[in-house]
Amino acid sequence: MTTLLEVKGVTGGYSYNHAVIKDVSFHIREKEIVALIGLNGAGKSTTIKHILGLLEPIAGEISIAGKTFQSDPENYRLSYGYIPESPIYYEELTLWEHIELMAMSHGLDREVFYERARPLLKEFRMEEMKDRFPQQFSKGMRQKLMIMMALLVQPPLYIVDEPILGLDPLGIRSLLTWLNRCKEQGAGILMSTHILATAEKHCDRFIILHKGEIRAQGTLEELRRMTGLPDSSLDDI
Ligand code: ATP
């Protein structure tokens, strides 16, 4: 299996003299969903910000499909789809204009754009919101906009930060169905989450962060073996 994301010995944070994450290493291959798990403040979002290229590591290296942010920032950014924890949007653009902008910035042609955009609007029950502005949306609807924008461009790698918070049950089901479909088609997905039951059901591997360091990583079976708790769930680990 091809490695899509490689995080190698990354130490980093918000300033050069204070490391929030320390010597973090893991990878994501194609056709897998990997959960990034940890308590509040463990460093999940900080790790994600380094992967996105928003923070520069103090030490270590991150590459997506062999490219680093430092060597080729434009192509690096195009190689992942990001679903943020807090929706980011333009007040002056409608829902449809947001997804159109996303398509244009990724060079999707018109026909492909329509082919992909319509089913997404339908799946997330947002067709009636098409010409409305995100300020008029609930938090969950804004989250659906972020999800549709990421899914539209079908990147090889998805970075998903706390995707479930704020979504209604149908939205959660749609998101998880689409992510599983993307995985079957070859995508790799890194998903930060607090919801352990969802992680256990949908993720192939788990990375457990504690105070900025990786405490353990592996499949559920491997984690159980490591902890010597054969029937344990992620809650116990
Ligand atoms: P949560 O589950 O609550 O979102 P998290 O695992 O994503 O937590 P981070 O947001 O990465 O954790 O926070 C890790 C540490 O980094 C915390 O001590 C936090 O205070 C600090 N931190 C987060 N954002 C900033 C920032 N913008 N500037 C400085 N420190 C920050």
Description:
The chain is of the alpha/beta class and 237 residues long. 36% of the residues lie in helices and 25% in strands. The chain has helices at 44-52, 73-78, 95-105, 110-123, 139-152, 169-184, 196-202, 220-227, and strands spanning 3-12, 21-29, 32-37, 59-64, 67-68, 80-83, 157-161, 188-192, 205-210, 213-218. The strands form 2 sheets. A 6-stranded mixed beta sheet has the order 6-7-8-3-9-10, with helices on both faces. Strands 2-1-4-5 form a 4-stranded antiparallel beta sheet. A hairpin with a 2-residue loop joins strand 4 and strand 5. Helix 5 (139-152) runs parallel beside helix 6. The two termini are 28 Å apart.
Keywords:
36% helix, binds adenosine-5'-triphosphate, alpha/beta, 6-stranded mixed sheet, 237 residues, 8 helices, 4-stranded antiparallel sheet, 10 strands
Summarize the topology:
Elements: E1 3-12, E2 21-29, E3 32-37, H1 44-52, E4 59-64, E5 67-68, H2 73-78, E6 80-83, H3 95-105, H4 110-123, H5 139-152, E7 157-161, H6 169-184, E8 188-192, H7 196-202, E9 205-210, E10 213-218, H8 220-227
Parallel strand pairs: 3-8, 3-9, 6-7, 7-8
Antiparallel strand pairs: 1-2, 1-4, 4-5, 9-10
Helix pairs in contact: 3-5, 5-6
The protein binds adenosine-5'-triphosphate (ATP).
Short description:
The chain has eight helices and ten strands. With 237 residues, the chain is α/β, with parallel strands linked by helices.
Number of strands: 10
Question: If helices are DSSP runs of H or I spanning 4 or more residues, what is the number of helices?
Answer: 8
Give every kind of bound small molecule, once each.
adenosine-5'-triphosphate
The description of the largest β-sheet is: 6 strands, mixed
Lateral arrangement of strands in the main beta sheet: 6-7-8-3-9-10
The radius of gyration is: 18 Å
* Helix proportion range: 25-40%
Quote the beta fraction. 15-25%
Tell me, rounded to a whole number, the average pLDDT: 92
Name the poorly predicted regions.
Answer: none
Taken from the alpha-carbon principal axes, the silhouette is globular
What series of H and E elements makes up the topology? EEEHEEHEHHHEHEHEEH
* Terminal residue distance: 28 Å
* Structural category: alpha/beta
Domain ABC transporter: 5-236
Keywords: ATP-binding, Nucleotide-binding, Transport
Organism: Brevibacillus brevis (strain 47 / JCM 6285 / NBRC 100599)
GO molecular function, one term: ATP hydrolysis activity
